[in-house]
Amino acid sequence: MLSIALAMLSATADGSAFRDAKACAESIARGERLERAGEVVRVVTWNVRWFPDGGPGKTAGTNLEWLACALAWLDADVFMLQEIKRSPSAAAAMESVVDQLARHTRAKWQVAVDDCPHPESQHLAMLYRSDRVAMTDIATRGEIDPTVVKKAQASCPGRLRPALTGYVRSLRGGLDFHLATVHLDSGKEERDQNNRREAWRRIETLTHSMQTARADDDVIVLGDFNTMGCRGCGIPTAAAELAAMIDALRGLSFPYRIASLQLGCSEYYNEHGTLLDHVLIAATMQEADDAPVRVSGICSALACKKLDAAHVAVMAELSDHCPVVVDVPDHDIDGS
């Protein structure tokens, strides 16, 4: 009964914090935050859709005040973000968000962005609360990108996104683990699916790269996997592609489980929820055996039902994706 009550409270609060900027500010002022079950390290992955412009060019853009408020409400220790621009104006927008987030949380935050070129392209970023966690070994790792362009740097070898990785250590309970965010190729054509399928296989190489930098079998890989299916590939639906990804991960010598399988959706497209964002946890990571994974934002508020008029603003001013939240119990079993 308690878990049902907590879920209902979360959905109500999600609906408030993600209805509009004013409602979010009022929620924060009341002291509301996404509830925590005990001592955990909370990691959130969120595709914030071409931050801060809202698209490849200059569009209406992200509501910076609302984004900072939503991040504060989520009460994470680490945010792993996708679709971040690196232009000077984007850097200034991120600085504004971090400053507002610091005021909301009364804490210091650090930002790292991948080192790939083309500042107007989509990049990956991590945002972490330095009074709760230490983040080391931050690196841009190109092993996940199956494409190649001439004269590219090793960390960004092709036209797709690399992985952004770091080693997390809790300053409270001692939990430590490798953390990586990815953003795989988008699209329903055969080329897109082939790129994603190759990226699944390359997760093993990415894992080895992180473990070479620091020996630890505790690894979490999360982000936008774009499991949307493929026309003419024998996996026409998102569910079919997810099943294919499960099979591919089972074939790796370093096994992962997909901890996000129970999520109903993580993104809205044409007013309907789809599941594109996932959390992979190393099978060897005992600390995360019971780590809950849940979706927040309008995906939670609407329970993945059809988009309604009350939540249209979030699509225009924040993102079409929803935050996915992982709460890992804050204790270290392996002692590494």
Number of helices: 8
Secondary-structure element sequence? HHEHEHEEEEEHEHEEEEEHHE
Low-confidence segments? 1-12
**What is the molecular shape?**
globular
Strand order of the largest sheet: 3-4-2-1-14-13
Please state the average pLDDT score.
93
| Broad structural category | alpha+beta
* Strand residues, percent: 25-35%
Radius of gyration: 19 Å
Main sheet?
6 strands, mixed
N-to-C span: 37 Å
Helix content: 25-40%
Strand segment count = 14
Task: Describe this structure as you would to a colleague.
- It is globular and about 50 Å long.
- It contains 8 helices and 14 strands.
- Helices cover 30% and strands 26% of the residues.
- It has helices at residues 2-17, 21-29, 64-74, 88-105, 190-213, 238-250, 297-301, 312-317, and strands at residues 40-51, 78-84, 109-113, 123-129, 133-141, 163-170, 176-183, 219-224, 256-258, 267-269, 272-274, 277-282, 293-295, 324-329.
- With 336 residues, the chain is an alpha+beta fold.
- Strand 10 and strand 11 (272-274) form a beta hairpin.
Features:
14 strands, 6-stranded mixed sheet, globular, alpha+beta, 336 residues, disordered N terminus
List the helices and strands and how they pair.
Layout: H1 2-17, H2 21-29, E1 40-51, H3 64-74, E2 78-84, H4 88-105, E3 109-113, E4 123-129, E5 133-141, E6 163-170, E7 176-183, H5 190-213, E8 219-224, H6 238-250, E9 256-258, E10 267-269, E11 272-274, E12 277-282, E13 293-295, H7 297-301, H8 312-317, E14 324-329
Parallel strand pairs: 1-2, 7-8
Antiparallel strand pairs: 1-14, 2-4, 3-4, 5-6, 6-7, 8-12, 9-12, 10-11, 13-14
